[in-house]
Design goal:
By secondary structure, the chain is of the alpha/beta class. It has helices at residues 3-6, 22-29, 48-59, 65-69, 72-75, 109-114, 125-138, 148-157, 165-173, 186-191, 193-203, 210-219, 222-227, 263-276; strands at residues 7-10, 13-16, 38-42, 97-100, 117-122, 181-185. The radius of gyration is 18 Å and the shape is globular.
């Protein structure tokens, strides 16, 4: 199916119509933020699901109940999607935990006014592309790409769900008042998960001892998440996501782009990347 059939343009970016209803978009637009809410922000395929285990475990002080009983989308709901208006988030105890893939420029008025805590997770865009390439192929609600090169060009041009990765990252890095924001990359989490958990806990003002931090890191390693049905998306119907084509928790490594992109594709991307990020001051972990 085509872009027109599967996507709607909202605030300038393509969103999958099936998972983003007019009701859920309106709900988010009018959503009332609390200053102690914690919002995980990611561009898709950058480590969202991983953070949806780490942050709840920090919040619970290492208690496993929520990650064993609540699926990802209920444990840390994504504010813009169709299920969310039915979760009675207004009644949840503070601090509430949410997720969004929105660009900073798309954030609703209450968020901008209240400025809740933000954990922004980034990933090497070539690995994000690789993960997306497999993901688009296994879902029924996203446009199937033509060739791999075409798919890369569409991604670079932002003609994909949630628009341009470059705009997303630059928008969130350019937030003026950064004391409520934490920036972390997928690669830092791969390199030293225990250290990443400790830093996130500190940001969340949730002091944890070294054993609890180790316990959380152990729970969040790829193989353990893969076994957990509340995190591995096996609860989603095959009609929606066909994991026989590609698993949701697919490889969980940094650098997998080397197994997918040709030399010419990587060069094409790198040239575009250099130009786009030339004025960005942030030191990315993958550069
Ligand atoms: P791959 O497709 O490269 O394996 P998102 O949750 O934002 O959609 O991102 C999904 C990507 O994060 C997938 O990447 C998935 O395997 C990876 N991921 C999820 N949990 C992980 C973990 N515990 N360790 C490493 N990677 C993880």
């Amino acid at each position: 199916m085509t872009e027109t059939e599967l996507y709607s343009v909202y605030k300038g970016v393509n969103l999958p119509t099936r998972t983003h209803t007019p009701e859920s978009l309106r709900y988010y637009e009018e959503f009332f933020s609390h200053s102690d809410d914690i919002v995980i922000v990611t561009y898709p395929k950058s480590g969202t699901t991983w953070m949806q285990v780490i942050v709840p475990l920090i919040q619970s002080g290492g208690d496993l109940t929520t990650i064993q009983t609540l699926p990802t989308w209920d444990r840390a709901p994504r504010l813009e999607v169709y299920k969310t208006p039915f979760l009675n988030l207004e009644d949840r105890p503070s601090p509430r935990l949410f997720v969004t893939h929105y660009h900073y420029s798309m954030m609703p008025p209450s968020f901008l006014k209240v400025k809740p805590k933000v954990v922004y997770v980034m990933r090497n865009p070539k690995d994000m592309f690789t993960s997306s390439f497999h993901f688009y192929g296994m879902t029924s609600y996203l446009v199937k790409s033509g060739t791999q090169t075409q798919s890369l060009m569409e991604k670079v041009a932002g003609r994909v769900i949630y628009g341009s990765w470059f705009d997303h990252v630059k928008g969130w890095l350019n937030v003026k008042n950064k004391e409520n924001s934490m920036y972390i990359s997928y690669e830092e989490m791969i390199m030293d998960l225990k250290d990443a958990v400790a830093r996130i806990a500190q940001f969340m003002e949730k002091p944890l001892n070294s054993e609890v931090i180790q316990k959380i890191a152990d729970q969040c390693i790829f193989m353990n998440m893969k076994k957990n049905k509340t995190s591995n998306y096996s609860l989603v119907s095959r009609e929606f996501m066909d994991q026989t084509k590609s698993e949701f928790l697919r490889k969980g490594i940094a650098g997998d782009w080397k197994n997918l992109l040709t030399v010419a594709e990587a060069e094409y991307f790198d040239n575009f990347y250099k130009e786009e990020i030339k004025n960005v001051q942030y030191k990315f972990a993958w550069d």
